[in-house]
Specification:
Strand content: under 5%
Distance between the termini: 41 Å
Largest sheet: 2 strands, parallel
Number of helices: 5
Helix content: 55-70%
Radius of gyration: 15 Å
Order of helices and strands: HEHEHHH
Structural class: mainly alpha
Strand order of the largest sheet: 1-2
Length: about 100
């Protein structure tokens, strides 16, 4: 797709500690943060997409390292973190 907002399937895979292979659509890079460069390929680049999948499949150490980083990033979007963020925002507005 060309735009995802906050793609839930990407966030769920990140929370599960998995590396991501996704196309460069809006929303995905924002979720992946600094690790986006290693996990995003250009839109409509089928061969690049396959290459990215093969890279993670063949280099388990890389896949585990990226997956661990993804899990840490995804923790920022947990229900507790989100609720705390809203609580802080509302408290700031009230004050």
């Amino acid at each position: 797709s060309a735009w995802e907002g906050m793609p839930n399937v990407v966030l769920e895979a990140m929370a599960a500690g998995r590396p991501i292979v996704a196309t460069a659509c809006e929303g995905v890079a924002e979720l992946l943060g600094d690790a986006a460069m290693d996990q995003i390929v250009a839109s409509n680049d089928g061969p690049g997409f396959i290459t990215a999948i093969e890279r993670f499949a063949l280099d388990r150490s890389l896949a585990e390292r990226i997956g661990s980083s993804n899990r840490q990033i995804a923790a920022r979007f947990s229900w507790d973190a989100t609720a705390h963020g809203y609580q802080t925002l509302y408290q700031t507005l009230i004050e």
